[in-house]
């Protein structure tokens, strides 16, 4: 009897641990005051890693730059997602259900969106090139089929559905890779697609890739090396904090500074971003619409 009881307890412990891991894989919305507007943060593991393996995302270190007596900060980014999988896996449905009039959404995808549609090693993440309405049919390993849209199509869904609820949307290009900022421009194509789809749908855009790249160049490679927790992609805690300040610089650079009244005293030390060289165009909603 004792052996059976021990086995049952072991089973329950393993099952509970598995359940917690499954729960941890889903976006976690911070406690929000329904009377305040909310700043929703969407993206991948470069935005929210949860400290796993020493990885942290900028969305996890941005709250101190805001006055949380005036605005909620809700990080709904999730590791491993592309624009396509964030939309199709149900995470977007959870996010949009919580969006209300007066909210803001900042959206960063592109890190996991490249690759070949249908490649089993790509984990069903790649979307189509461009911002058009063309589609590709993807047959998955289990035989099911999925109609895959372009990167811009998914971004447009995020924009238009949030705008329909009275929210303001800000698209940003991905943070640069550790090995791709010193001598060349990273994520140029995704930045251009973001800029184009934002302009087409009356949303904001700023080139976060270059905001961070230019900031990296100011502090130098030796310092930047401490900002990463792996050889190429994910940032350490200090790197996440640095990139969060860069996001604030980008937000301040938007015409009209739409989030100005929500910034905390900490953000006063952050200057609006001014590009060192021309980048993908900043998109500003047409105030006449």
Q: Please state the CA-atom Rg, rounded to the nearest Å.
A: 20 Å
Strand content: 5-15%
| Category from helices, strands and their pairing | alpha/beta
Number of DSSP E strands: 7
Count structural domains: 1
Describe this entry's structure for a reader.
Mean pLDDT is 88; it is low at 1-29. The chain has a 5-stranded parallel beta sheet, with helices on both faces. The chain is 34% helix and 10% strand. It has a single domain, classed as Rossmann fold (3-Layer(aba) Sandwich). It contains 8 helices and 7 strands. With 289 residues, the protein is of the alpha/beta class. It has helices at residues 2-24, 83-88, 91-98, 151-163, 188-200, 208-219, 221-225, 237-253, and strands spanning 38-42, 72-75, 104-108, 136-139, 145-148, 168-172, 204-206.
Topology:
Blueprint: H1 2-24, E1 38-42, E2 72-75, H2 83-88, H3 91-98, E3 104-108, E4 136-139, E5 145-148, H4 151-163, E6 168-172, H5 188-200, E7 204-206, H6 208-219, H7 221-225, H8 237-253
Helix pairs in contact: 4-5, 6-8
Q: Quick gist of this model?
A:
The protein has 289 residues and is an alpha/beta fold. It has helices at residues 2-24, 83-88, 91-98, 151-163, 188-200, 208-219, 221-225, 237-253; strands spanning 38-42, 72-75, 104-108, 136-139, 145-148, 168-172, 204-206.
């Amino acid at each position: 009897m004792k052996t059976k009881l021990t086995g049952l307890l072991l089973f329950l412990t393993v099952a509970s641990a598995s359940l917690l891991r499954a729960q941890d894989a889903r976006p976690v919305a911070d406690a929000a005051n329904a009377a305040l507007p909310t700043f929703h943060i969407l993206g991948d593991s470069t935005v929210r890693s949860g400290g796993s393996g020493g990885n942290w995302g900028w969305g996890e270190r941005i709250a101190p730059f805001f006055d949380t007596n005036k605005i909620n900060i809700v990080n709904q980014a999730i590791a491993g997602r592309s624009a396509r999988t964030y939309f199709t896996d149900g995470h977007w449905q959870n996010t949009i259900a919580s969006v209300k009039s007066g909210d803001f959404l900042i959206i960063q995808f592109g890190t996991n969106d490249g690759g070949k549609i249908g490649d089993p090693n790509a984990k069903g993440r790649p979307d189509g090139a461009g911002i058009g309405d063309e589609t590709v049919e993807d047959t998955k390993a289990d035989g099911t089929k999925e109609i895959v849209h372009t990167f811009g199509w998914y971004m447009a869904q995020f924009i238009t559905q949030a705008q329909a609820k009275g929210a303001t949307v800000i698209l940003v290009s991905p943070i640069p890779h550790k090995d791709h900022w010193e001598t060349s421009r990273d994520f140029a194509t995704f930045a251009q697609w973001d800029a184009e789809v934002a302009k087409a749908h009356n949303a904001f855009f700023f080139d976060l890739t270059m905001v961070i790249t230019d900031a990296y160049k100011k502090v130098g490679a030796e310092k930047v090396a401490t900002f990463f927790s792996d050889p190429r992609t994910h940032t350490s805690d200090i790197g996440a904090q640095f990139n969060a300040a860069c996001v604030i610089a980008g937000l301040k650079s938007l015409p009209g500074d739409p989030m100005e009244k929500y910034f905390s005293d900490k953000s006063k030390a952050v200057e609006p971003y001014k590009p060192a060289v021309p980048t993908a165009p900043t998109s500003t909603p047409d105030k006449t619409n």
